[in-house]
Amino acid sequence: MGAALLSLALVQCKKQEPAPEAAQVQAGTQQPQAQQAQAPATVSDVLKAPRPRGGEYMGLYLVGKKVGYVFNDLGPVPGRADRVRSINELHFKAQVGARLSERVHREERIYEAQPGGRLVAFTIEQRGDGGTQTLVGTVSAGGMSVVRKRPGLPDETVNLPATTEVVEDADQVRVALLRQANVSGSWMDGTDLGTYKLSTTVQPAEERLISGVKVKVGKAVSVSDKEKVPITAWVAAEDGRLLELELGQTMKARSEPEQVAKSLEMVEVFGLTRVVLPRALPPEAQTIPGQVKLVMENLPERFQRDTYRQKYEAQPDGRVLVTLSARAPEPKRLAPRPLADPEGGDNLKSSIIVESDSPQIRELATQLVGSEKDAYTAAKKIVGWVAANLKKDYGASADRATDVLRQRKGDCTEHSLLTVSLLRASGIPARRVDGVIYMVNQDGVPALYWHEWVEAFVGEWTQLDPTFNQVVADATHFGVGREGNAEITPLIGALKVVEVK
Fold it and tell me: Is residue 211 very low, low, confident or very high in pLDDT (cuts 50, 70, 90)?
């Protein structure tokens, strides 16, 4: 359940037709009882764990401000005792700069009901920022077949490796608490359709004050290999209600009645999540080569990994001195394309998001790069084209590279996604970088704002920012994560800069 919420946070959805398996289930409710599928001799623990009937709503809070709500449910499929249906949906609504951003993302997954029952079908529906689409998937031991449906466009079929997700992974928290034992498994991410290891650890039970009454609660912590963000869940021991989910220190989901959960505040995300600086950064932070030093608080050790751009030095008071530097790649280290990925190949892969194997992406990459052999020169051509041809439109999102290419607008995530896709199509290993960048907004306050840019291997790793047409991302960029996942969540609203040197 926690992994489902985390994979949903900051994505979107459209409610259309059910997955093939779900359609069979609906038809099955009209069959005579004798013809309906029989329940397995034993059913999964996920069905034995207590939970609210009819599903449950939770308000979603970012830095104490309500930005959306979540609904989830799990139970036998009507008319199909041999099947289990899991529903998870997220509604996000907030002000992003001058625009209202709304996203809805709904997932319905169908599993076999016996212990270890496999995932057999799913429907992922998306609406709002990022585009409207439905992914209808069927799963077998040999792989997954996914049909992608978008308004006004022909359907596309994508064949992917099989997932190892099973029915217990649909709600590891309640399974672990029922068994009073840790649970390990896997989870198919609803955004990139990759499968990642997921594990849940049982914690000592606690007492919490709920509506003025002390209630005994079970506690468990889930972590996925993709996000690497511990998600703590508190579940009422008496009736299995999910009381709260905590994703880092600043994002929480709390159990609420439906009407309360759906009542949203109007929150301006940029101002809420920025890191205000004690003073403006010096000019040398924006030159190439350039450097700046910042003293930070609330930067966990796992983010303090020295790189060619970022160095960390622990201070006696628990703070950390971060040195950010930027320089162009060394000419003697530049290499011709195509290049091998020094990290094993993931930075050259095409995916349902990156789509570097798409004919449209490949055709444009060939036009932009031509016969240019030098990888860095080719990368600069791609960055320059994206910067010049994508309209900066904050809130006009697209979650697939071909959608970005078609709409030709977006914010930093769209600029970075299209750039990475074109780089990979050109034989240049590349990935997206999540972090913060220095800006002085209309209110005149110097601050670091959450941002995304690009890292490419051109003989050595280098960072580029297509949003601001920087062929060397300057030293005002502080990277803390990769590939648009949620590992940065614990830093939002918590990270502080107490001194600029």
Answer: low
Residue 179 contacts residue 55 (beta carbons within 8 Å) = no
Whose CA is closest to 323, among 288, 294, 298?
294
pLDDT digits (tens, 9 = 90+) for 95-150: 876 778 888 999 999 999 999 999 999 999 999 877 789 999 999 999 999 999 98
pLDDT for residue 2 is more than 70: no
What number of H helices and E strands is found in the chain?
10, 25
Round to whole Å and give the CA distance between 404 and 399. Answer: 8
Inter-residue contact 475 to 324 (CB < 8 Å): yes
DSSP state string for 219-265: EEEEEETTT---EEEEEETTT--EEEEEETTTEEEEE--HHHHT---
With bands split at pLDDT 50, 70 and 90, how would you rate the model's confidence at 486?
Answer: low
DSSP 281: P
CB 114 within 8 A of CB 42: yes
SS3 category, 20: helix
d(CA 89, CA 285): 42
> 3-state DSSP call for residue 15?
coil
Locate 225 and state its tokens.
């290999």
Strand partners, 59: 69, 254
pTM: 0.84
Least confidently predicted of 31-45, 183-197, 280-294, 323-337 = 31-45
Strands of 97-239, DSSP E: 99-112, 119-128, 133-140, 143-149, 156-160, 183-188, 195-210, 213-224, 231-236
Least Cα distance to 9 among 68, 64, 56, 52 occurs for 68
- Output 395 or 495, whichever has higher pLDDT: 495
Burial category of 170 from C-beta neighbours within 10 Å (exposed 0-12, middle 13-18, buried 19 and up): buried
Among 231, 228, 232, 250, which residue's Cα sits nearest to residue 496?
250
